[in-house]
Write a structure and sequence with these properties.
- The complex is a heterodimer of chains A (412) and B (253).
- With 412 residues, chain A is of the alpha+beta class.
- Chain A is built from twelve helices and eight strands.
- In chain A, the strands form three sheets. Chain A has a four-stranded antiparallel beta sheet with strand order 1-2-3-8. In chain A, strands 4-5 form a two-stranded antiparallel ribbon. A two-stranded antiparallel sheet of chain A has the order 6-7.
- In chain A, strand 1 and strand 2 form a beta hairpin.
- Chain A is globular, with a radius of gyration of 30 Å.
- Chain B is α/β, with parallel strands linked by helices.
- Chain B has one domain: P-loop containing nucleotide triphosphate hydrolases (Rossmann fold, 3-Layer(aba) Sandwich).
- In chain B, helix 5 crosses helix 6.
- The chains are: A alpha+beta (412), B alpha/beta (253).
- Chains A and B meet through helix 9 and helix 10 of A and helix 3, strand 6 and helix 4 of B.
- The complex binds adenosine-5'-triphosphate and magnesium ion (MG).
- Magnesium ion binds next to helix 2 of chain B.
- Adenosine-5'-triphosphate (ATP) binds next to strand 2 and helix 2 of chain B.
Chain lengths: 412, 253
């Protein structure tokens, strides 16, 4: 505190010099350890010094041992094989190995989030059902799943369920055909054929048509307060135009690649064609969906219960149908309560996918472990792992916060 | 003169020996009431006697287990078509307002006409604005319910119920949750409504309102209507002991 007459100092209005001096004196009397403002700044300074000190200590330690910090190893040949995910061979560099891991994690997390949301929504609503059996079954599922550690559930799913499925020569064959064995699930999958080049313009037209209908619908919704046609009509061009294109162009643009059981030389049985979900992927996905779904169900239930009963009653007294009550009155209010904890559940699912290592699914963490074992670049790889999870988490938070903001604006 | 017209009008609500149980608890123990078209009926009675439960059985917010309820010639059964038909004829105003907090004042009113009655938005908005004028809050149309005073909220709730153009209005203690200075503005709207000729059943302890517009007053206790009478007679010559002690309690307040 410098003396009086400091430029920019706002003079106290209507306070004479004596009083002002008294106030200054009063202020300067407060010892710094009791001054809230000073203490706050001090705490931050101390914290920054601590962080810097730990960092400097770690760095000197690291360098004193003759270790280098460098990412040059990423261009070197990985010389290990990865059985899961995009194409990879041992001659590919470490960077590509890491990409395989990241994509595997992203795939299981993305599909897991969608499925867990569906499971959670259905179970949460079922939990509130007036049907005793339905609500009881939902309740038992939620209680059991929430009270067993996820790691235990994954082991159970993988070793006691998936691994106990029949061997490939006795695989379950569902119509499709879908082959289910202890090596995983093989499904039919469309493959692009030669005439696809003629067909894709139809897909573009279909998409434009659907978007146009959505805009028209949005306009009428704004204008009349009620959509002029059902959302299903938007799907019509999406189906009709591609089908039309299929009939018009020669040949089939897509071929359904059906899996098929073949005998290799030496009498080895193998399912070829289609697309395969490995048993590890299946177990991890199922485990994450079942586990997170139970938590999301509770989030949904709490959200719906947070809407007072009077809301439903007022709506029923006005003659709304049950579906209209849910979609026009209960869910818009419940979503405000549901979305913030839902974001945490999505983040949990993504981070819990690192338990993949327990059942040998080659996710980001499992691949990274192999990487640092082979290259010795532990610290560098750990920074990559942390950066990857951080990026995924921030992406989820960012997207969901936009959704949340839109909900809130609709509310206010 | 108005009374004579009522005598000849047909009955719009008929309840015969209506019973209801909550588990083992026998709430409605044989309710009988007949309300004529255009009649204004006030229901009073001690707390917890089942008045709310009774009024809520009329529009199927509660299901009755025995007896008959006939509204405008339609019997209230498990037939969903009948239930919806009856609910369309009845508007209800609650003690706690139960407005939709996520919708603007105007949208609170237009939501049901647009989705249930399938009106165009222009028509719904036009009718809604007329109703807001009628209840005296047209300047609040673009606010949210949470931004209104209690009295304004209840007037909005009345406008919302009227938007479906019901033949019958049910009121369950519409002024009990209001501060004293707001009670009058809501009662004024209800008096105007009562004089417009709509059929009304009003649960209330506002005896001033009852004296002003009610055709009959019903006294409800222990799960049934103990007695009823014209407004003048009810206060001067209560027949049952139960009624006398209740009246002495609320009138000495
Ligand atoms: N859903 C319910 N389940 C069980 N009991 C209920 C239920 N609703 C009401 N009751 C009971 O039924 C009785 C009548 O309730 P009701 O709300 O109809 O009384 P009321 O006459 O409207 O009282 P008040 O003047 O306090 O509003 C009360 O004893 C109440 O506890
Ligand atoms: Mg009540």
């Amino acid at each position: 505190m410098s003396g009086e007459g400091v430029s920019g100092c706002i003079p106290f209005k209507g306070v004479d010099m004596n009083q002002r001096a008294a106030m200054d004196e009063h202020r300067s009397v407060v010892p710094f350890w009791r001054n809230e403002r000073v203490l706050k700044v001090l705490a931050q300074i101390v914290f920054v010094i601590l962080v810097l000190a730990v960092g400097a200590w770690a760095l000197t330690n690291y360098l004193e041992r003759g270790l280098k910090f460098s990412y040059s190893f990423l261009d070197e040949e990985a010389s290990f094989d990865l059985a899961e995910g995009i194409e990879f061979s041992p001659t590919d560099p470490y960077a590509r190995a890491f990409l395989v891991g990241v994509l595997n994690t992203a795939r299981v997390a993305a599909i897991g989030i969608v499925l867990a949301t569906l499971v959670g929504l259905v179970t949460g609503i079922a939990r509130l059902s007036k049907n005793w059996l339905v609500s009881k079954i939902a309740g038992v599922y939620i209680e059991i799943i929430r009270n067993i550690p996820l790691l235990v559930q994954l082991f159970l799913l993988y070793f006691a369920v998936i691994m106990k499925l029949p061997q490939i020569k006795e695989a379950f064959v569902l119509p499709g055909p879908v082959y289910i064995s202890n090596r995983g699930i093989v499904l039919p999958w469309p493959r692009v054929a030669a005439s696809f080049g003629l067909w894709w313009p139809f897909l573009v037209v279909a998409l434009i048509g659907a978007v146009a209908l959505l805009i028209i619908r949005g306009r009428s919704l704004k204008h009349t307060g009620r959509p002029s046609f059902n959302l299903l009509w938007v799907v019509t061009p999406l189906v009709a135009v591609p089908v039309l294109g299929w009939l018009l162009i020669p040949g089939n643009p897509l071929l359904l690649d059906l899996p098929e059981m073949v005998t290799k030389s030496g009498g080895v049985l193998k399912v070829e064609g289609g697309t395969a979900l490995s048993s590890e992927f299946t177990a991890l996905l199922l485990g994450l969906v079942v586990y997170t779904g139970a938590y999301i169900a509770e989030v949904v239930r709490a959200g719906i219960l947070s809407v007072p009963r009077g809301q439903t009653e007022a709506a029923r007294a006005q003659g709304f149908t049950n579906r209209q009550i849910l979609s026009l009155i209960v869910l818009p209010q419940a979503l405000r309560v549901i979305i913030p904890p839902l974001i945490s559940q999505y983040l949990n699912l993504t981070k819990n996918s690192s338990l993949a290592i327990a059942i040998g699914f080659l996710d980001l963490y499992a691949v990274s472990q192999t990487m640092w074992n082979q290259s010795g670049r532990v610290v560098e790889v750990f920074f990559m792992i942390m950066a990857s999870y951080l990026t995924m988490s921030l992406t989820i938070s960012f997207v969901m916060n936009i959704v949340n903001r839109r909900m809130q604006i609709v509310e206010r | 003169m108005q009374k004579e017209k009522l005598e000849t009008a047909e009955d719009i609500i008929i309840c015969q020996n209506v019973h209801k149980w909550f588990g083992n608890f026998h709430v409605l123990q044989g309710v009988n009431i007949t309300v004529k078209r255009g009649e204004v009926v006030v229901v009073c009675g001690p707390s917890g006697s089942g008045k709310s439960t009774f009024i809520r059985t009329i529009n199927r917010l509660e299901e009755h287990q025995r007896g008959n309820i006939i509204v405008d010639g339609i019997e209230l059964t498990n037939d969903l078509r009948n239930i919806h038909a009856i609910q369309r004829e009845i508007g209800m105003v609650f003690q706690q307002f139960n407005l939709f907090p996520h919708l603007k004042v105007i949208d609170n009113i237009t939501l049901a006409p647009i989705w249930v009655r399938r009106w165009s938005k222009e028509k719904a908005v036009q009718v809604a604005m007329e109703l807001l004028e009628r209840v005296g809050i047209p300047e609040q149309a673009n606010k949210y319910p949470g931004q209104l005073s209690g009295g304004q909220q209840q007037r909005l709730a009345i406008a919302r119920a009227l938007a479906m153009q019901p033949k019958i209005m049910l009121f369950d203690e519409p002024t009990s949750a209001l501060d004293p200075e707001m009670i009058k503005e809501v009662l004024d709207v209800m008096v105007e409504l009562a004089r417009s000729g709509i059929t009304m059943i009003v649960i209330t302890h506002e005896m001033g309102f009852a004296k002003e517009v009610a055709n009959r007053i019903f006294f409800f206790a222990d799960g049934y209507f103990v007695e009823h009478n014209t407004t003048e007679e009810f206060f001067i010559n209560p027949r049952e002991e139960r009624t006398k002690s209740f009246l002495s309690q609320i009138l000495t307040h």
